[in-house]
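Bug report

Summary: structure tokens for SGNH hydrolase-type esterase domain-containing protein differ between web form and batch submission.
Environment: batch mode, default settings.
Steps: 1) Submit the sequence below via batch. 2) Compare with the web form result.

Sequence submitted:
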Amino acid sequence: MPRQIADLGYVQTLECDRRRAMVRQESRILRSRFGEAKARARMVDVWQKLRLSLAAIAIALGAAMAIPANAVDMEQGTTFLTPFPDNDIYQVTVFGDGFAEGLLGGLVQAFGSDARLNIQRQITPIANISTWDFEGKTVALEQKIAGQPLNIAVVMIGEDDRNPFRSPDGKRIAVGSDAWIAEYTRRIDRLMRAFKRKNASVYWVGLPNFARSDANELAQRMNDVIRERAYLNGYKYIDIYQGFTDENGGYSAYGPDLEGAIRLLRVRDGINFTAAGNRRLAHFVEKELRSDLTQAKSNRNMPLLGAEAEQEKINPGNSVKTPAPSSPVADSASANAKAPVVRSAATDGTPPSSASAASGDQKADNGKITLKLIGSNGREETQTIDILRPPIPASVVALMARREGSGPRGDLVVDQIGGGLTLMSSITPPGNRDRGRLSPTQAPYFRLLVKGERLQPKPGRADDVSWPPKNDSTTDAKPADPVPRG
């Protein structure tokens, strides 16, 4: 969708340039034919028509820009992992270099007995990112990805990536320079886009700290690039840097294993890991993956999630059935076949009506209860109370199901309005909504926690270092009375 918007904006820019050129040409013709005064009068009408055209183009572009916002909101209501993999088994492949081989061994130890995952026992290698034929090897990697079943991809590279690049004219780009970081960013982004066509869930593991201080500083800059590109491509970035540091934040070959015992985690080269280190390395991926597996499992029970075959697996006795072609509701049901809804029979045993089955609405289910009371005269009286269960629109059912199955999405506010109507609104925190309206790199979360930008301090707050000091506008506290002298 962003590519379509970019193409639309490009076409509209060309159209604006073409119309401006036509106006200038017509202006020169009018001046030569009618003179300056008449030419100006005619040009006023031309410019008004041009403004109307530009306004129509702006409206079309605004409508197109609204599409990604809705798409992002829809994606936020789903899990990171698909709830319905083929045969209910997630196909897992580890990609990368020497780091990935040790990571694969740790993941096999962590998930060896988990029947939900089928972990390939060999990694799919990713060549050195600084190689001269990077583009050709990336295309070959795309073909490998497309030719294998894949639901979850775990990627870790960087063991030998701290090498100089070559510019198109053959010049050497020094490691760590601004030009090197720019080329590294381009290549990392190209690698990440190789997984897009497969539509797999990608966990991208960052670099650990190293023994050499210069390599350590470069690794942090490379992690910043990986973190940013993973965020923009919709992948999960696994930060392991702090997991292998000592109490002062420096490099240490020793550290606690998963049971708390101090073990040797790094080998003598100051780069790679021991067997205990690889198990600890896999632990960071394991935490994220287990959490996503739990969330995907909970979303399997959402009434509006999954096609008929998928709902039949988890709810065999209560799934929506496709009507026979001869059924009178076959035509109406076919229009809603893409949005099956799980429903049960009413309290009186009657099945849902055809109108309810076609629209997804839940019909009214009223009832009565009988109470025996003691009247004012001391005699027993019987009173019947009607219990009203009004029909529930499909939109309300979808709102409640999405809120229950997609994790914390905000607060549900219920308010009674005039005419006996109930207003239900889902209030979502701004942090989750800004992604659909702002560029991802301009979201407050990304600017503060990823880029490390400083918040604008409020007057009087502890981080306000302006001089002279301003009055505290964040509290109603009054200044203390001056201490009397003498």
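Above is the batch result. After comparison, the two runs are identical; trailing whitespace caused the diff. The first strand starts at residue 90 and ends at 96. The mean pLDDT is 74.
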